[in-house]
């Protein structure tokens, strides 16, 4: 997934094997040693397959997006499924690329045809109120925060706890803690509770959860508030996680294969990084749900369960690298650097 | 610098003007309103100008790197200046690109010529002990941390303070606080102090400072410890800040112009993302210190003083966006999203 930073003179030395085989010390080693029971198949209904025209060398370009599961960003993912089934994006293009920011696609900016393409039937309304959801919907069981990792079983356990000695620091300046919903990263704002002797805690302000902007996150472009976008125009992050967008725009998923096909596109030179000529656009051949593809064409992928023992160890190892290359353990990590491992079902 | 995420239908609406002119509410507005006295010229000796061969369309590609100033990463930047003056990189190439990780250049991986190019004379030894420096050398005056922003005048003031109400959260899971040294981001580990009545505080453990890995940071590739690299092989970050590398490798500066020429290079398909064929390499025409270029060819750039009132306001506005596009203020920010504004002296 990542690479090391060996000088070229060392690249021919047999160091790669250590990275993979050192089960106890490297994130890759922990993932490789994870038990098969700790992996979860991604439902075909949650995979969006975007095929771009071949590149200049004639190589195919396929991008696979894992959609946020219910109840996160629900209206937008419903619309995205409707648009994929209507083949709505077919023939549209990637029309914008801004360095260390996003690549954006959909209707585009065609000076000869400024009218947006009409949406298919069945599009549901969206609301900025749904950028976050209440935790009582129950999507998370494990929290990473300033006090390390904690298992939570009920809202009453979400009250702040003391920091354990030597627990890694997962503090997040953008939230109280982070977690994952079926393999996709979210931030958490802890609610408030009133505790009386002998009584169950009473929630006075609900804990809230929202999907976050990391590298490869996919979001819904929109106009000014109260518009919240339909899902017709999407962007993928190609730089440092722009977390200030969290709670201000709908995040609908994450590119889990092929983000490099977007990241290496030339940056746009027009206003907002929009391409100035049609020739710069990258045409979209098709966007389909994997569940609508013939069985043999479906990507079949799984992610490491973020509530598993191996994922907990994986996060701890990321926060405290101690293999041959690392001399000083960071002592912590941020949500965008604790990326959920994804692999093919065949692997 | 950044862009907005308006849907395409809004891109033709006159919204761009607000982004720039809303002085009080947007980072760009604050920067534009900064007093000329708040800008600092970057010395020509601190600018490394890297010229790549023209791209496929024949357009020139120039990358400008701002080198870390003394006393940070001192031995490596000294070597880099020596190599630039010896024209050592001329004719070498970019030989590696890994998505969401780095682009790397220098000696390369030439299967026909596996011997590294000999270094010029005058290369000084480097040591991993110098990945961090003691704060008493005095490079910083302002700290951003979990308790907001603080001015510091002496070591005794670095002890933890109470969080001010409503101060933005700049907490960093990788350090106690962050700051900047002449426009380049660093992390800070606060030292320990013994305080006795009526006596000056006594430092028992020094505060330490190190340069951090953000998007566009430039570091020194190395072999396994205790090797610390010479500076001959460099990489630039092209993804989410890989902060776990901090204190494990020397950071020598930041790309402040032209990072997109590196970020859009095709990813390498060989081991560690090294290009498998010579044709994939991007040749380096020359690497020069701006101070060694003819006066009229020098880039002349300045950065916003990070101890200035405008930079403090800029960081606060980033942490609490409240312009028309943003509905919910983040309440905090991480060091890699508080990027130091740089502009041409002519602007």
UniProtKB/TrEMBL annotation, chains A, B:
InterPro entries the record matches: Cyclophilin-like_dom_sf (IPR029000)
MF annotations from Gene Ontology: peptidyl-prolyl cis-trans isomerase activity
Keywords in alphabetical order: Isomerase
Protein's recorded name: Peptidyl-prolyl cis-trans isomerase
Organism: Croceicoccus pelagius
